[in-house]
Amino acid sequence: MHPEVGKIREKTGTAPWPKYLKSVRITGLRGWNGQQVRFPFPVTVISGENGSGKSTVLKAAACAYTNSLPGANTYLAGTFFPDTPWETISDATLAFSMKHGEGDRNYQIRRATRRWRIPSSGRAERAIFWQDISRTLPKEATIGYGQIAKRTANEVAAEQLNDDFRKFYSSILGRAYDDARFATTDADENRRVGVVSLGDDDYSQFHQGAGEASSLDFMLLAQNIPTTALVLIDEVEASLHPRSQRRLMHFLLWVARRNHVQVIVSSHSPYVLDEVPPDARVFLARNGDDVEVVYGLSTEYSLNRMDDMDSPDLWVYCEDTEAVELAKELLRIAEPSIELERLKFMETGPADAVKALGRLAHNDRLPVRAVGVLDGDEAPGDGTIKLPGTFAPEVQVFTDILADGVPFLAARLSLVEGAVRSALERASTRDDHHDWPAEAARLLNNQTPSYLWITMCSVWVQHCVSEEEKQAFAEGIENLLP
């Protein structure tokens, strides 16, 4: 994860964002029935399948404020959500919760019948930048730019990108631009065209690719973003290859930290999701006319759960990689008759995410058959079972093996018992139990963390877990197989 994430966390602790949209609750629009979407991190990514409601969330967020940018239009719910010959909006509400200055504000805008009504106290003011997918439209296809492309037009003025933003632009595109500016011509002084220089050659957005041209436009916008603005970008990865997507997210993190800017984007890209922490990922799961909002899901789940090329009999959602390996060993040893090839194990994120997915599966609101597997320190519920024990996997396995399993583990590793015990004891003194397997592997030399953990899981299942616990876990999986 990029270092800017840590810097943002540090800054929010000492100098919180003075203007921050905490959440929006949507009712009566496109299958939304009062679900709330929270924005837990200054740079939040909304993901989900096509039609899940990502654009609806961004548009609702844009309607939260009166736009304070000079000469800019305020975004209106009636514009984003109009009546058409096929849809009529009624009894719809957008409810907002925000930090504004020294206090919090909560209000809603509502359309009961024919028009949206704003609260009598008015909306809070904030600079809003909205970027939808139309930003990738080529200049030659944009209304009003035809005259500028004629050879008879002459450049009469220009606004430069400053060095910081030109360097970011170069980094995102992977090309060392010597200059970048937005030129105005005598053909139309109200329309500007981006022009970049590479060595002795200049070329304009009329001759750039979609990603190159839209990124240049965004650089100028970002250069002029005032402090505390709200930036909303639909399909942020559009027309950019993976490296550029990652670097654009690094840039957005930098902008957010530098100017107390809040950024909310939608994306289908794993490269975008990878650059923000799990608490900054919001996944929208739609089933029929309903939407479920899930937080903290892994990149793998968010982007790949609907892969048509992978159709297991049962998806098994676990909190992390360690839990996945432990669950596999439990099934392999406790119930060899279960063919693991029929199962798809997936790391999905924290316990709340596993519970949410299990609940969706239990209520037949996922397009696949699935079960959630919680760590031993969690209580199972609808659609979830739990691993044996009462602690997180690393704590449970290390504790039990130190009590009863060191001789078996040493034999499996072909190492001296004393060395194995010492390594496990020293590793388990670290504050974060997620670090224990890697630290133990380091202390034992020549052991990779993954091999050591899988071996520990096997020893734990064979020698530390009761037959009743093993069978209970296996039956929780077997009973769900078709």
A few lines on this structure:
By secondary structure, the chain is α/β, with parallel strands linked by helices. The chain folds into 4 domains: 3-135 and 226-285, Rossmann fold; 139-208, no CATH class; 305-388 and 469-478, Rossmann fold (3-Layer(aba) Sandwich); 393-464.
Characterize the structure shown:
It is a single chain. The protein has about 475 residues and is of the alpha/beta class. The chain is about 35% helix and about 25% strand. It folds into 4 domains: about 5-135 and about 225-285, P-loop containing nucleotide triphosphate hydrolases (Rossmann fold), CATH 3.40.50; about 140-210, no CATH class; about 305-390 and about 470-480, Rossmann fold, CATH 3.40.50; about 395-465. It is built from 15 helices and 21 strands. Strands 9-14-15-3-16-17 form a 6-stranded mixed sheet, with helices on both faces. The chain has a 5-stranded antiparallel sheet with strand order 2-1-5-6-7, with helices on one face. A 4-stranded antiparallel sheet has the order 10-11-12-13, covered by helices on one side. Strand 18 (about 315-320), helix 9 and strand 19 form a beta-alpha-beta unit.
